[in-house]
Amino acid sequence: MEIFNVFYEIFLKTGIPHLDYRYVIMWFIGFLFMYLAIKKDFEPLLLVPIGFSIFLVNMPIAPLTGPGQLIHLFFKYGLETEIIPCLIFLGIGALTDFGPMIANPKTLLLGAAAQLGVYVSFFGAIFFGFNIKEAASIGIIGGADGPTTIYLATALAPHMMGMVAVAAYSYMAMVPLIQPPIMKLLTTEAERKIRMKQLRSVSKTEKIIFPIVATIVICLLTPDAAPLMGLFMIGNLFRECKVVDRLLKTAQNDLLNIVTIVLGLAVGSTMKAEVFLNPKPLFIFFLGLVAFAFSTVGGVLFAKIMNLFLKEKINPLIGSAGVSAVPMAARVSQKVGQEADPKNFLLMHAMGPNVAGVIGTAVAAGTFLAMLK
Amino acid sequence: MIREALSVSGTGLFVVFLTLFILSLSVKCMSYVLKRTAKKGGKKHGDL
Lengths: 373, 48
Description:
The structure holds two protein chains of two kinds.
Chain A: H1 2-12, H2 21-38, H3 44-57, H4 70-80, H5 83-95, H6 99-103, H7 107-113, H8 116-127, H9 132-139, H10 146-156, H11 161-173, H12 175-186, H13 189-192, H14 204-221, H15 226-241, H16 245-268, H17 273-276, H18 280-309, H19 328-340, H20 347-372
Helix pairs in contact in A: 2-3, 3-16, 4-16, 5-10, 5-15, 5-16, 7-18, 7-20, 8-9, 8-18, 9-10, 10-11, 10-20, 11-18, 12-18, 12-19, 14-15, 19-20
Chain B: H1 2-41
């Protein structure tokens, strides 16, 4: 009898008696993310750690997410302090070539137009009953920029950060499925065949001065975007000045990889069964899709409007690349363009609005912060 | 709530366009000035 009691005591200290169906559902959601990443190659760098983290934090009574416990520390010091999204921007800046945008600066406006989805889904979220701060965090999904989404959600609606981050990264991975039908619907065959003049070469000096000019303009007009944009631009300066090779390599590789791991684990840790298993995430995923669709619409239609005034026409397909999702959205423009004319090369032209979209989304987030924080 | 949302989204979209428009003008100006300076100084465009 004594031995039975000892075993029973041990059994009570295992996770098994605390297990319920909600945890098992979350395990399957974690498995689904890992399956999409490993088997379908959907944003594997993020969905593998996020998927495993979902799986891990839904282990009953495991000491992971309580105050002072491992994954909670990642969340607290990485995300609550907003350090990780900014460090990711440093790495992205170090990987970004602004050359196509400097060569054709009017493509910056396409990056602005492609923020339309942010504001459409912001309204949608309010109609679905979310408060204004939650709605802003959902709307920013339309910018298709994971770190900015996390940055804004952490500041305005931290309880929803995991859901909006997962929605943003899931839809970013699905850009090649979501955008082409909308792009084809809004353009004629003749428009898709428009060939654009080859971009001029951009000098080293222009590339070095650009991050400084951009920092001045953006930080003066939207100071709340300064943490993201400041690190984005310093990363880019590392790349273009060619004298800090060690810093550049660290920003592009080791630092970016380390913060990506911590980000994935911290984001996944917010998806505990008690938070995730309610109707809200379904609305968020639906509104995220609306945001992506309208951002694509905004970019393509604005390119068509610009064509009414331009002597040298632009191919409206590059407008859809104004949603950030670098470089996937630019590749989609290239692919859809080549379906209409196999000898048309739009990739470099689409990179302009693509990187402009990153700036546009950060500015949109900064504006939300200025008005709602 | 709707009125506040309208004002937030209207202002937000305006600021995004304004910022990127000014940035686009600044980039144009920067390229123009660098081109002129390079020509005056007799340096090849692109040299530091």
